[in-house]
Structures
1.
Amino acid sequence: MGKRRKAREAAVQYHFWRDLQHGETPEHIDDFWAFCPVKPNVREFAQPIIEGMVAHLPEIDDRIRKYCENYEFHRIAAVDRNILRLAIYEMLHRDDIPPVVSINEAIELAKTFGGADSGRFVNGILDRVKGDLSRPLREAAPSPEKSGQD
């Protein structure tokens, strides 16, 4: 399994833990990493995702609510809710990750950690989010150091 998949798993675990603690986070993020140890290169990819998800959580949750018509937000399984949060954060705020990659990774995480219908549920919500995007779905934005070298 690649470092990015492990990093995404760690981000989902962090936010799942946060949900169980009613939004409380550990006093220091190192407490989480002590509980959920990963290799440094995994942590390097996961840390900004975790922090970005926290920073944009109200916006992300509003987006989930928007597309979960006729379904109460608090009734979404915690695993599915946090997988959606991860993917929506990446789709909206991580131009270095193509949206289709975020969607595919989220579906795989949902199939692995969620219930029998989690993959389909996550796919349905993220497909609707994808329709709101104005950036290319299959491309990452060029990194600043590469764009200046052409």
Note: The radius of gyration is 15 Å.
2.
Amino acid sequence: MNQKRIRGRVIGKVQGVFYRASAKSLADDLGITGWIKNSPDGSVEFECQGMGSDLEKFVSWANKGPDWARVDSLEQSEIQLQEDLAFEIIR
């Protein structure tokens, strides 16, 4: 099993543009677990876990976001696997 977990921080115009909802929809489609939330500084943070190719698709999408978003940068690092049951939006 080639599962990985990524922690990411997306900087740009990523709040108020359906970034989190779009990310959840994609994660659900890909079978990815984890979470996503807005940060007070205007960025969006996430942790996502899944199989290698699905995770690559998610991170590739995260680097662009939904149509109304403008991603200036995406910081990411691989972290330890966890036991998530789903992908959730943290409010």
Note: Helices lie at 19-30, 52-62.
3.
Amino acid sequence: MSAIGQSKKENIAEYILHLWQMEDVVRAFGNDEALQQNDFLADLQEMMRSEGVLEKGHVQLAENALSEMEELHDELLSTQATYRAAVMQLQPQLNILKSKSDNPTQSDLRMMFVFLYNIMLLRLKKHPVSDDTESIRRQVTSLLAYLSKVYKES
């Protein structure tokens, strides 16, 4: 099993966010020769090229992992009252985030990932994050950590 495959099983949420970040690295480097010095990034660039996501979007690896998370999310919503309650508690904030996004019809789970990824980008740029946003981040992180744990145990 490859290192990236191991990290998917260990923590699928981190795996997805890591792939998204590496896609942005590939986009930032473009055709720079430095990218070719790293086998993973060179392979990812080729994958992005062949899948038509060099400018925007995500490789099928990331989309498949997100689909697996969606299936688990849906299953837990229908079988675990505490999980359902945690999602319901976040619902108003997710609806606001979706209404402000480029894709207001995206799933709650995808919105959680987009939200976390955007916070990561803000922090990389040393932009402040409000207390309210930080509170939502903690809730989303907790929910995705639980999903990742259940995924790992399956």
Note: The CA atoms of residues 83 and 146 lie 9 Å apart.
4.
Amino acid sequence: MNRSLTGATVQIDFQSPTLNDEEIDYLRSKLREDYDLIVRGVELGEDSASPPIAAAPTTHTISQTTDAVATRDGEPSRIVPCTIRSGQTEEFPQGSLIIYGDVNSGGEVRAGGDIVVLGTLRGNAYAGTNGRLSAVIIAMDFAPLQLQIGNCVNRSSTNQKPPGYPEIARIGPEDVIIIEKFVKF
């Protein structure tokens, strides 16, 4: 269990939700079980006043779907409700991936859009494989072997310990991948 988030309270706001009640209950239980997060409430609405990720471009959205359904930007998303183990690859070139679990060392995730890992990222993550440089990679614990966004690559130090808070990787100035504290959804 990730102790850095223990006791935190979260509010989940869905924009144009496509999750049914059973899937929302599963999300609540996984956040409680794996991260000891308390879900204060689930807001279902059609529009959001601000983008879901403050560090990402304002056109960025994450859809809450289990199947490939187009978002308002026309990019589909896929939820993977399990950990990606060593030797496994999860690939979704049409859009974004949301992983409910870890990406273990030796595991690999590839997405045409963003990658969100609701666990520890220890393996390889390749976002923006369709050339989208505005893609981001987010993880609750960030300890990847290799990151790639578009054609920019970043290899992490193998001795680096995760800082204990969520982080986001994105393309910064001079087309370099920067990793920083993920402060706000």
Note: The CA atoms of residues 122 and 144 lie 4 Å apart.
